[in-house]
Write a structure and sequence with these properties.
It is a single chain. The chain is mainly β. The protein folds into three domains: 89-99 and 108-374, Single-stranded right-handed beta-helix, Pectin lyase-like (Pectate Lyase C-like); 381-487, no CATH class; 515-765, Pectate Lyase C-like, CATH 2.160.20. Helices cover 6% and strands 44% of the residues. It has six helices and 46 strands. The protein has a 34-stranded mixed β-sheet that branches. The protein has a ten-stranded mixed β-sheet with strand order 27-30-32-34-36-38-40-42-44-45. Strand 44 and strand 45 (743-747) form a beta hairpin. The two termini are 41 Å apart. The relative contact order is 0.09. The structure holds 2-acetamido-2-deoxy-beta-D-glucopyranose. Residues 538-539, 640, 696 line the site of 2-acetamido-2-deoxy-beta-D-glucopyranose.
Length: 765
């Protein structure tokens, strides 16, 4: 209640807002490893851009991006040279591509998004080219492009002739990237060949709140996996062309007046390129063919082209699914809703059974829904708040130099912001803390291009007495609400007892939220967990105790409830981002995301958890959980050593005890679980990519020819669990895809997909 009235008090200031607060606050971001005077924040107008719709602003914008020499052509990757390139409202005429550097965010005024307008003679592959072809290969290896955002823009190609090839944005990137609040305007008439968004590869990723108007295709995309929600397509010839994928989750699509909605027919029936697509809570209006597929009962590979749809509204969409032989699912010239329909292999709960048709829709818990759809909320950008509503941590005395102990300064800044009903702005920096940072109810915290809270010292190094680095809510079940966005929690040096985030807060009514808040452990400058300390040693099963870097990424405790997570990547580094060859490292983090909330609800939109020793996701004694798309990877060093070391199982945390569960099991059984569900109910996973690419740093095990032998098992459903639904489960490198109480449910070779094995529908019963 008190919080509510404080909100009103801040809102009353909103009437005075002119520009976006991000442009108006003091710019004090410090990149401690980039040299003195390195500019974190860049307003394009300070670099000569006019935004008047007449002047060619290309050079000025690229000058704003390249100031201080961040990671551009020929640079592998970096965390040391962040950039926030800010565009005030206006129309910026450009004649060639804008090239955002690695770890550079392009951010427009959220209240009045600026337009990037291509000249009639525009030259380039994308008005924004996020990964250029300076040579025949992409400048950055697409699967290693992390920590980049573009938000709040209108991208306009309407001045380019409809028949001239034009691309709004080129974005082959990977985890911890996001596009938000972007409109793509293209010609809508004639023989238009423009494409709004083009992605050819990568390991994404998340996008939300995009609108595509006109064009031959709104989006033409291939990538391992993605989560995309709230995308609108108006008057495109084809809304989405799916070039290839393993798994893709779409929610909240609104496709209107397009000839084809989603074309997943790439490769044709004899060589399907699209592994799987999960589509929920979406609508097609005035669309002759909603889904175009090449799947047949005999198409190749066996499970490729798997399609799972749930809660799809058709309004004048006469063909819902069209295959090579004609209509597979009729639509209507009126209105109807498809409750659930799919094709592929299903296990309900045993299988495989090939199917193409309706199936029982998930029994969705009401706690997860808003107007019948899964609840969503985009990252708040606070565009109605003036700069005076923000408190800077640096103004409050924190240094962010990765060396100073910032514990007290950071804590005081958080407390003051909450007491004054202000939003805490974490200026870019690496804030070293030596005891727990507590985030109380009422906190709203937003970072400047992923500042880092970095735990350090003996307080976090007791494996028998783990401590949270960031604790949200002081005790499990404390009531209240917080909003956290755009920062990273990490550790420095040996931290065998660090729990990066402990979530205790119980939020009823409006959920709390985490948007683009990541855990990134090791592999970057300032962590002292890089090639110098922890370079990989294939074949060496002896654990280097100096490379035990975290106990757990995130713990959601029993009394916690009501948390919305969007684009959250929990990553123990497999390689050194700041080393020019991206050399691999061996560091040990115990556990990924552990949820033991008694009641839920939790929403995990576009999350990943990678390289934790015991498991990536574990749910125990919990319920009411939405997950989609999730992505995991097993540590590359396993089984040398395997998951029996170096984190002994803790019974009170329901840790897997591989010594017991692997007795008599063949192969690499003592390997990290991708997903483990114990005594839980009402859990729905809409798309999962559970990958185990390596055995002792060799990828030879992760092919069908080799028999997917990297590990034996990857998904475990245990105990009294019920109403566990997994759609489009894609596994790589594991022999058994799903286990129920230790018994094998699904076998990799029965479910061959393009690169993974796929089960379109699993229902535990
Ligand atoms: C692990 O890989 C290394 C390097 O290829 C090799 O020398 C070693 O024999 C392997 N060890 C095991 C147990 O497979």
């Amino acid at each position: 209640m008190r919080f509510g009235s404080a909100l009103l008090a801040v809102a009353s200031l909103a009437a005075t807002v002119k520009g976006f607060w991000l442009g108006d606050v003091a710019h004090q971001g410090l990149a401690p490893f980039a040299g003195a005077n390195y500019p974190v924040f860049r307003n394009v107008k300070d670099y000569g851009a006019r935004g008047d719709g007449v002047t060619d602003d290309t050079a000025a914008i690229n000058a704003a991006i390249t100031a201080g020499n961040p990671c551009n052509r020929g640079c592998t990757s970096t965390t040391t040279t962040p950039g926030v390139v800010y565009f005030p409202a206006g129309t910026y005429l450009i004649s060639s591509s804008i090239f955002p550097a690695y770890f550079t965010q392009l951010i427009g005024d959220a209240g009045s998004p600026p337009t990037l307008k291509a000249t009639a003679n525009f030259a380039g592959f994308g008005l924004i080219d996020g990964n250029p072809y300076y040579t025949p290969v992409l400048n950055w290896m697409s699967v290693n492009v992390f920590f980049r955002q573009v938000r709040n823009f209108v991208i306009d190609t309407t001045a380019i002739a409809p028949g001239t090839a034009a691309t709004g944005m080129h974005w082959p990137t990977s985890q911890a990237t996001s596009l938000q609040n972007i409109v793509f305007n293209m010609p809508a008439t004639g023989d238009v060949v423009h494409v709004g968004l083009f992605i050819e590869e990568g390991s994404g990723g998340f996008m939300t709140d995009l609108t595509f108007n006109g064009g031959a295709a709104g989006a033409s995309m291939g990538n391992q996996q993605y989560t995309m929600r709230n995308l609108k397509f108006n008057n495109c010839k084809t809304a989405i062309i799916q070039l290839w994928d393993w798994g893709w989750t779409y929610a909240g699509l609104s496709i209107n007046n397009c000839q084809v909605g989603i074309d997943i027919s790439a490769g044709g029936s004899s060589n399907l390129n699209v592994g799987s697509v999960t589509l929920i809570d979406s609508s097609f209006t005035n669309v002759p063919v909603a889904i175009l597929t090449a799947w047949t009962t005999n198409s190749v590979p066996a499970t490729a082209g798997s399609l799972v749809m749930e809660n799809i509204a058709l309004n004048n969409a006469p063909v819902a699914v069209k295959g090579p032989g004609g209509t597979m699912l009729a639509g209507t010239t009126g209105s109807m809703t498809i409750a659930a329909w799919g094709n592929g292999h299903r296990y309900t709960p045993s299988g495989p059974a090939q199917f193409a048709g309706a199936f029982d829709a998930t029994n969705r818990p009401g706690a997860l829904l808003s107007n019948g759809r899964y609840y969503t909320r985009s990252k708040p950008q606070y565009e109605n708040f003036p700069a005076s509503s923000f408190i800077s941590v640096r103004s409050a005395g924190a240094r962010g130099d990765a060396a100073t102990d910032d514990t007290a300064a950071l804590q005081n800044a958080i407390n003051r912001a909450v007491a004054e009903s202000k939003i805490l702005f974490i200026d870019y920096g690496l804030y070293r803390v030596t005891s727990t940072i507590r985030i109380p109810p009422g906190a709203k915290i937003v970072g400047e291009s992923f500042p880092v809270i970095l735990s350090a010292g003996g307080f976090f190094n007791d494996i028998n007495n783990p401590k949270p680095v960031v604790q949200v809510g002081s005790s499990s079940g404390q009531q209240g609400q917080v909003e956290l966005s755009d920062f990273i929690v990490s550790t420095q040096g040996v931290q065998a007892g660090a729990i990066c985030i402990e979530w205790n807060l119980a939020s009823s009514g409006t959920p709390s939220g985490m948007w683009d808040v990541h855990v990134r452990i090791g592999g970057f400058t300032g962590t002292q967990q890089q090639i110098g300390q922890c370079v990989k040693q294939p074949g060496n099963a002896a654990v280097n105790p100096n490379c035990m870097v975290a106990f757990m990424a995130m713990h959601v405790t029993r009394g916690a409830s009501g948390l919305y997570m969007e684009n959250v990547w929990l990553w123990t580094a497999d390689h050194d981002i700041d080393e020019h060859l991206n050399t691999q490292i061996t560091i040990y983090s115990g556990r990924g995301l552990y949820i033991e909330s008694e009641n839920g609800p939790f929403w995990l939109w576009g999350t990943g958890s990678e390289h934790f020793v015991l498991y990536q996701y574990q749910l125990a004694n919990t319920r009411n959980i939405f997950m989609g798309q999730i992505q995991t990877e097993t540590p590359y060093f396993q089984p040398t050593p395997n998951a029996l070391v170096p984190f002994p199982p803790v019974a009170s945390l329901n840790d897997p005890d591989f010594r017991a569960s692997c007795a008599g099991v063949e192969g690499n059984c003592a390997a990290a679980w991708g997903v483990r569900v114990i005594n839980s109910r009402d859990v729905s996973i809409y798309g999962a990519g559970l990958y185990s690419f390596f055995d002792n740093y060799s990828t030879a095990c992760s092919t069908f020819t080799a028999g997917q032998t990297c590990q034996q098992r990857i998904t475990s459903i245990e105990g009294s669990s019920s109403n566990i639904n997994i759609y489009n489960l894609n596994t790589i490198g594991t022999r058994e895809m799903i286990n129920r109480d230790g018994a094998r449910v699904a076998w990799f070779a029965d479910n061959v997909n393009t690169f993974a094995s796929n089960v379109a529908v699993y229902k535990s019963g």
